[in-house]
């Protein structure tokens, strides 16, 4: 499906659409919003119910921490993230080595590369991870996020992965790293936890507001940030379930993921508990 992406869009802060007694929008969803739902294997009604659990104010989230993280050097951070993700996700030593050798990193802050972090497949079958690593907790989480994207790209080479499933894998990568640090290095884990909670302002609050303000607006076009809130909450729900097979499945499957791993169904089991989720 060829979704039209908005060229320049600011986070949506418009009031929520009117919601009926059963949680269904009283306005009409646009065709582009319905296409987005269908492509990701979710329903408009489910998005409405999911967004109802997102806090109404960005004051619900802390500010990003300013204290430097213990892994201030990019190479040490890269090795740490690679080890944690491949140990958690790969089934044997040979697969781990294969994955590590196929991910290339460009982490040095430079003016001649994109500002936003990204992971992209290359023509030679490897994946490039790029970001500006300054040694902050949020940089370490970004590194975990993009490396998780890279691992999924290497495991699902057969075609286009729906964006909500791409972001769910990336957010699971953050949780794998965050929870390992929580179990082993409590002081630095608190810095990571604070950064993760602060970033929910963007990934949950602003994404949910953007969906609410765009879904019935005929002049609005597809915005990639629609994918963040459902994905962030899906990753948290999957992680809390403790089901290793489900976590592995997020990274293992490509376009067939929607039928094999329906996130709508997974989240539906947890939607009543989302009020209690405070990352």
Descriptive report:
By secondary structure, this protein is mainly alpha-helical. It has a domain at 33-63 and 194-276. Helices cover 52% and strands 4% of the residues. A 3-stranded mixed β-sheet has the order 1-3-2. The longest helix is centred in the last third of the chain and has 29 residues, at 186-214. The protein starts with 30 loop residues before the first helix and ends in an 11-residue tail after the last helix. Mean pLDDT is 76; it is low at 1-26 and 275-279.
In short:
With 279 residues, the protein is mainly α. It has a domain of 114 residues. Helix content is 52%, strand content 4%.
Q: Kindly report the spatial arrangement of strands forming the biggest sheet.
A: 1-3-2
Let me know the number of strands: 3
Q: Strand portion, in percent?
A: under 5%
Give the C-alpha Rg.
Answer: 18 Å
Average pLDDT level: 76
| Helicity level | 40-55%
- Count of DSSP helices? 11
Largest sheet composition: 3 strands, mixed
Low-confidence stretches: 1-26, 275-279
Order of helices and strands: HHHHEEEHHHHHHH
Main structural class: mainly alpha
Shape: globular
Distance between the terminal alpha carbons, to the nearest Å? 33 Å
